[in-house]
Amino acid sequence: MTTEAQPSDLYYGDYLQLGRLLGAQAPLSRRQGNEAHDEMLFIIVHQAYELWFRQILHELDAVLRAFGEARLDERLLADICSKLERITVIQHLLVEQISVIETMAPQDFLEFRDLLVPASGFQSRQFRAIEIKLGLREQDRTAFDACAFYQRFKPADAVYLHKLRAEPSLFDRVDAWLARMPFLQDKHYDFWSSYRDSIEASLASDRQLIETHPLLSADDKQRQLVQLLQTRQQFDCLFLPEAYESQRAQDLVRLSHRAIQAALFIYLYRDEPLLQQPFSLLKLLVEVDEQLTAWRYRHALMVQRMLGRRIGTGGSSGHDYLRTSAERTQIFGDFFNLASYLLPRSKLAPLPPELTQLLDFHFSTLHRDF
Fold this sequence. Notes:
mainly alpha; about 60% helix
């Protein structure tokens, strides 16, 4: 005897709590007795931002938990990459969402703007949490940001953000993960030495090409030789641990010396099967950072379009503050700058066969009869 399945009492609107969600728009201008039509749009766009920020934090927290283990389970790399990719897709959506708010004319915004003072998007606790968890430091902020940063938040939010500062960020976790990477050196192979030899050979070849080029004038040759010297000095700072640590002390670079070696190894030999997933991860971190910067720049342009040179509701310089903030707040800049140190595949020293075998999928070397 079978019993028929009972219909669930769950209802679509109840599951999504649409009563609370759709009742959460309360335009301030309505309370003044003369509702500004576009204030509803302004509220909904920013509420949508906060919902997407919540999803980004949901993905980011899962990534941080995986990296928080004493030893990262390499089987999780694909899942980590899928979560980072989801974050980048959401970020694309956030950038495009600015187009919606730009359908509001500046004069229509001015109908209710003064009612918002002193509230500001600066006070988005979730957005600030995303920044901190990714790895933005206090010294990376603009002077306006850094000055009395926590005073702009309610006490509970300020305490929450301050506690986040004490926790390792995604940048910290990735740096530690890269620093633990094997393959860089053993009794038969030293990546750093091999890479340096390749760079020396490449620089010597460039110098010879400049000096013997028949179409370059003496002034052109001198100019290009000066540029080549600057390139050599850049590599010297990379190869000499003391010079590199000096750059770190000046905040010119952030990655540890061991970590940047591992990152370069991954970038240069990314075609090796076991390095393809780590390369995808680093590339996604660059994409997350790039989209964050793109959102800041697009936001700055939108504010300029809406406010011109007026100050922001939170007391900042409006457009100028947002533009400067976009320029200063890159988190994974070291991965962007790896392009400065790459070599074409044709000039790259081949890996020893023993290491190539370690970096291969082992089943590809098996021979089976079917």
